[in-house]
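queue> pop job 88
queue> type: inverse folding (structure -> sequence)
queue> payload:
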């Protein structure tokens, strides 16, 4: 499969987005390794709780609601922060929030296994779709004698 350079030059923006979706798909597929990570549950502290508004920008709709920023101390004694989490229980500053982190350093927050599998499946669709579009739209047509 050889790409047509002239067609790519004509449609730079379209090719850019196809490549962007390809990279996003690969990044999403790498989330499957979170399933292999040993995790432990620790307690994080809510350091900020706030409310966001629902709004529409163009065709994109953003859901508002309660949000929070959490902090915890890893095994090296460093403070780790994760923010803009949905606060479904309406926790306030100073409340305890249990989270899953990697067991080795406790510095990286890990999603549950279901979320990692969903990200992997989305990554497969993004990657396969972008490769299919790339093959249909940007592959050079061969003639006899090439």
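queue> result:
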């Amino acid at each position: 499969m050889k790409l047509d350079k002239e067609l790519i030059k004509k449609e730079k923006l379209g090719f850019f987005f196809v490549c962007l979706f390809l990279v996003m798909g690969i990044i999403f597929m790498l989330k499957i390794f979170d399933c292999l990570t040993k995790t432990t549950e620790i307690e994080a502290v809510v350091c900020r709780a706030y409310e966001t508004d629902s709004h529409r920008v163009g065709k994109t709709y953003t859901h508002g609601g309660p949000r929070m920023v959490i902090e915890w101390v890893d095994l090296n004694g460093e403070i780790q922060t994760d923010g803009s989490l949905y606060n479904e229980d309406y926790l306030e500053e100073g409340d305890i929030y249990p989270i899953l982190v990697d067991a080795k350093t406790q510095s990286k927050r890990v999603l549950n296994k279901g979320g990692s599998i969903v990200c992997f499946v989305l990554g497969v669709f993004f990657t396969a779709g972008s490769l299919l579009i790339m093959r249909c739209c940007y592959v050079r047509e061969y003639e006899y004698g090439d």
